Amino acid sequence: MKAHAKLVRQFIKEVLNEGDIEATGKYFHEDVVELVPLPGQGPGLSGLKKVLGGLRSAFRGMNWLIEEQIEEGDKVVTRFVWSGEHQGEFFGIPATGRNVSVWGVVIDRFVEGKIKETRIIMDGLGLMAQLGVFPPSKD
After folding, report:
1. Is 114 part of a structural domain of the chain?
2. Running along the chain, 139 residues long, what does each successive block of 10 average in pLDDT?
3. Taking the model in full, what pTM does it have?
4. CA-to-CA distance for 95 and 80, rounded, in angstroms?
5. Helical H runs in the chain?
6. CATH code of residue 34
7. How many independent structural domains does the chain possess?
8. Which of 70, 106, 124, 132 could form an SS bridge with 120, CB 3.0 to 4.6 Å?
């Protein structure tokens, strides 16, 4: 396994799955740029940590599974699925108790051994349907 891909895997294990949000700084630069920020996400490492903490608070038992990973030059592309039980407010949606499973892809660019830019694309529409924000199609 290549070095940058290994760091992404360690981040997913330590921060996302085990919940050590403070360890995020081991993997990301202080001035990391989120190229596709979540609504309301602040800049830099502090904004990222706040969003990650909010996700972990909203979804009990959150677990991220890497399905595919490619490292090329200074970039790592990771295809993932995360799951959890909606037990806290999420973007104004009160806890539903529903289990969710959300797919996505993240592209991380490394500079000097840490992530400098990141871009995450997740199935937000699917997540909202699973939370019951709108009913699924009857077709």
Report:
1. yes
2. 95 98 98 94 97 96 98 98 97 95 98 98 95 77
3. 0.93
4. 24
5. 3-11, 44-58, 124-130
6. 3.10.450.50
7. 1
8. 106
Q: Give pLDDT, residue 78.
A: 98
Q: From CA 75, how far away is CA 81, in angstroms rounded? A: 20
Distance CA 46, CA 53 (A): 11
Give start and end residues of each alpha helix (H) in 18-136: 44-58, 124-130
Q: What is the pLDDT of residue 82?
A: 98
Of 121, 57, 130, the residue nearest 99 (C-alpha): 130
Helices first, then strands: H and E counts in the chain: 3, 5
Within a domain: residue 12? yes
Question: Looking at the domain assignment, is residue 135 inside a domain?
Answer: no
Separation CA 106–CA 47 (nearest Å): 17
Residue 94: per-residue pLDDT: 96
What is the spatial distance between Cα 30 and Cα 59, in angstroms, rounded to a whole number?
A: 26
Q: Which two tokens stand for residue 14?
A: 């330590």
Q: Is residue 18 part of a domain?
A: yes
